[in-house]
Design a protein that fits this description.
Helix content of chain B: over 70%
Radius of gyration of chain A: 18 Å
Number of domains of chain B: 1
Shape of chain A: globular
Shape of chain B: elongated
Structural class of chain A: alpha/beta
Number of strands of chain B: 0
Number of strands of chain A: 9
Order of helices and strands of chain B: HHHHHHHHHH
Number of helices of chain A: 7
CATH architecture of chain A: 3-Layer(aba) Sandwich
Largest sheet of chain B: none
Structural class of chain B: mainly alpha
Order of helices and strands of chain A: EEEHEEHEHHHHEHEE
Largest interface: A-B, 46 and 42 residues
Oligomer: heterodimer
Strand order of the largest sheet of chain A: 6-7-8-3-9
Distance between the termini of chain B: 35 Å
Number of helices of chain B: 10
Radius of gyration of chain B: 22 Å
CATH topology of chain A: Rossmann fold
Number of domains of chain A: 1
Chain lengths: 215, 251
């Protein structure tokens, strides 16, 4: 009962023989927004992929309500929306057809509502290859209005989104946290989140590059 | 304790008691299967290269063989099952490259792995839709192509039957290779290397059945064995494919 929603314990990540981070521990309680910060190549995306369970960690574990996410894969999947740096949109299909597969539990009026919310009214049936990069990302973000899952893991959600869209997305993140959700995101953008509980996790290189050549 | 009550207790923790957190219930496995099947069929109908090219390849190989070897009807009848089967096998290998690659590149593959539906069933849906656009047309074209190779009568229908039984097996086996190599750039050659040895029994039985017919022998043993292989592949290959996908996306 007292378990935080997500708990990261002593996580270590190594890519191509280079340690990215180690002994990383933090907790994500319900109602918080967590921003993962760090330079390019510091392992932000790798961390998010470990948190979703897509990638294995070198050591350490990720707990969902006190149990390893690999043991409770189905329960965790039902509570997780992950939007990676690839938006997960099929170019040949229209936004509506994409959402029908990406967020299958919603119904038709929901899709129209969500697409209107992300500013794609009128584009419901045009194939996604005719959309701009920002619009494609908006199709992916429409899932946030549809699935109502508790944990949102978002990799650079603000990329290619215009100023007005950014404000709206920030407000959406805050309202999600206020409802008791958790948002874990990476972004280089300064977040304006108002009153929401906000935490920052900074990833840095544990060693200087020269130290790598010593052995 | 159910998830819902946990969620409620959590929303109390953050002192927002009036807004309750209610996640949508996931859809049933059957509906998830149909959604993915529909999505993949729609996507391949809109992007024809992936399945039209292998069919053209098949057509060209079968057309060129009589020109290259001999237009003698007897010779053609003799080589027909082998030519058709080899062409079908190679066109399967050509097509299987695209099975997971596009999904990998646009990020839908990671969404598939993260979806609450069973990955086993999702993999079956993907391979099935792939077979519907690449394998089934080959089997349906076979009678027309057999006539070009002077194969007629019972042999023609047996050939079609073996292709109907064999191409899904080939697709399932090649899909393991495709899943293993999806993370590697240009894994095309590797897929063939992994899958080809496993294709050989299917090829031998498929051509064997047609030859048995033309020589007047019983062919039911061949067909039974092919059915057994298909049953085995349908049950076991999706496990291997699902596991390979998890490995491929893990790094």
């Amino acid at each position: 009962m007292d378990h935080p929603l997500i708990e990261i314990q002593e996580l270590e990540c190594v890519r191509d023989h280079t340690p990215l981070f180690s002994k990383l521990s933090f907790k994500a309680e319900a109602g918080t927004i967590i921003q993962i910060g760090g330079e390019n190549g510091s392992g932000k995306t790798s961390l998010l992929r470990i948190l979703t369970g897509l990638a294995p960690a070198e050591s350490g574990q990720v707990l969902w309500r006190g149990e390893s996410i690999h043991k409770k894969r189905a329960g965790y999947a039902e509570a997780l929306t992950f939007i990676g740096h690839l938006p997960g949109i099929k170019a040949q299909l229209s936004p509506l057809e994409n959402l029908r597969w990406l967020a299958p539990s919603a119904d038709k009026t929901d899709y129209f509502y969500a697409l209107a919310e992300v500013g794609l009214r009128g584009y419901e049936d045009s194939p996604c290859y005719t959309l701009s990069a920002g619009q494609k990302r908006r199709v992916a973000l429409a899932r946030l209005y549809l699935e109502q899952r508790q944990v949102w893991i978002l990799d650079e959600p603000f990329t290619a989104i215009d100023k007005k869209g950014v404000e709206k997305l920030e407000a959406l993140l805050v309202s999600h946290a206020e409802k008791g959700g958790v948002v874990i995101l990476t972004t280089h953008h300064e977040l304006k989140l108002g009153a929401a509980k906000f935490q920052q996790v900074l990833l840095g290189r544990p060693k200087s590059p020269s130290a790598d050549y010593e052995h | 304790m159910s998830t819902k009550s946990l969620e409620q207790s959590n929303s109390k923790e953050v002192l927002v008691p009036d807004i309750e957190f209610v996640a949508r219930a996931p859809i049933s496995e059957g509906r998830a299967f149909m959604r993915l099947l529909r999505r993949d069929l729609l996507a391949s109908l809109r992007y024809r290269n992936d399945w039209v090219n292998p069919l053209f390849f098949l057509l060209m190989v079968v057309t060129l063989f009589p020109l290259g070897i001999s237009p003698d009807p007897k010779t053609l009848t003799m080589i027909a099952p082998g030519v058709l089967w080899i062409a079908a096998l190679l066109s399967t290998l050509l097509a299987v490259d695209s099975l997971f690659l596009q999904d990998f590149e646009d990020g839908t593959l990671e969404q598939l792995l993260l979806s609450p539906s069973s990955l086993y069933l999702m993999v079956v849906a993907k391979v099935f839709s792939h077979w519907l656009v690449t394998g089934l047309p080959v089997a349906l074209l076979a009678p027309i192509l057999s006539i070009m190779l002077n194969l007629s009568g019972e042999g023609l229908w047996v050939l079609m039957l073996t292709l109907l039984l064999g191409t899904p097996t080939l697709a399932l086996i090649s899909a393991i290779g495709a899943a293993l190599t999806v993370g590697i750039r240009r894994g095309g050659m590797l897929v063939s290397l992994i899958a080809l040895p496993l294709h050989v029994p299917v090829l031998i039985l498929g051509t064997g059945a047609v030859q048995a017919v033309s020589e007047g022998f019983a062919y039911s043993a061949h067909l039974s064995l092919m059915m057994a292989m298909l049953a085995l592949a349908v049950v076991l290959a999706p496990f291997a494919i699902a596991a390979s996908l998890r490995i491929s996306l893990g790094d």
